[in-house]
Amino acid sequence: MDQLLKAARNDDPEIRSQAALEIGSHQPAEALDELVELLCHETIDPVVETMTWAVVAYGETATPKLLAALDSDIGNPARVRILHALSKVGDPATLPQVQAYADDPDPAVSAKAWWAMARLNADPAALAAHLGGDNAERREALNRAFVQRGPDSVAALVSYLGSDDPVIVDQVAEILVRIIDPMTRGTIARKRVSAEVETAKQALREADSTVVTAALKRLAEDPRAGIAESAEEALAS
C-alpha cells in the first residue's frame, strides 16, 4: 500500500492516474484519507477524473472525508472537485452541507453546488431561489441543474411564470422547454411521459405572457432539434 500511495504522489500524471485506478478498484480503507487529499490538490484534468472515480468507488464510506474536505481551507478549485465527487456519491445526508454553498460568491462553486443539489434531489424551491440575474454562465448552470433535477421540479417552476421579473419568466420558460424535450430523458422515460411533463406543456400553452411567447419563439430557432420542436409545439397550441 505504501508503494501505491507513493505512486499516487508521483510527478508523472500517468503514474498518478494508474495508482488512483488501482486504489479505486480495491478501495483499501487505509488509502481513503490520502486519496481525498490528493484529489484536493490535483490539477491535471484526466488525473482529477480518475481520482474522482476512485473516491466515488468507496461510496458513502467516503462521505465523512469528503465533507471534512469541503468545509476545510482547500481553496475554491478544490471545493468544486469535492462537490462534484459528493454529487456522484449521492449520499442524501450530505445535502445540507452541499446546499450551504449554493450562495457562494465564487460562481464555479455555486454552480457545482446547484448541480450537486439536483443530483441529491434537493427541494426544487431551493434551486428556484437562484433564478434570474444577467450572468449567462450562471443562468446556464442553473438551467442544467434543473434539467438534471427533472420533471419533479416542474410544479415549483410553473409558479414562477407569473413573476413580475421578465428575466425570471424567460428563464423558467426555457427550463420548462428543456425538461419537456424528450432527448433530455432516457429511452424508457421517453416512452412514459410523466404527468409533470404534461403539466409543463400545459403551463406554457396557457401562459398569458409576451415574455413566454418571445422565449418560445427564440427557442424554436434553437439548433438542438428536441428543444426547437418542444418550443414549436407550445407555440402551436
UniProtKB/TrEMBL annotation:
Keywords: Lyase. The keyword Ligase does not apply. This is PBS lyase. It comes from Parenemella sanctibonifatiensis. It comes from the Bacteria. Coiled coil: none annotated. GO terms for molecular function: lyase activity.
